[in-house]
Write a structure and sequence with these properties.
By secondary structure, this protein is mainly α. The chain contains three helices and no strands. 8% of the residues are buried.
């Protein structure tokens, strides 16, 4: 194989890998952003309190929030439980 074609082939292979990585990364970021927005809405609808504090939470804390929002728990206790999870 000519070196020119090898370089072109290698470039295409790396380009394909980069595109797939970017798609996966973008999808993961979109899912995280969607979970955050849904968590914020749920909190504000259920408790009539500002949910901006959720923007400071890690993805793991958002998952904990999602588990607790469906339980019969006060907004202060919910916030404490979520923020205490590191």
């Amino acid at each position: 194989m000519d070196a020119r074609y090898q370089v072109q082939y290698d470039f295409q292979e790396w380009h394909d890998v980069d595109v797939e990585y970017a798609k996966k990364s973008g999808l993961e970021q979109g899912i995280s952003a969607g979970k955050l927005e849904m968590a914020k809405r749920q909190y504000e609808m259920k408790y009539h309190q500002d949910g901006e504090w959720l923007k400071e939470c890690s993805p793991e804390q958002i998952d904990i929030f999602i588990q607790f929002i469906l339980t019969d728990i006060g907004y202060k206790e919910l916030k404490e439980k979520v923020l205490s999870f590191l």
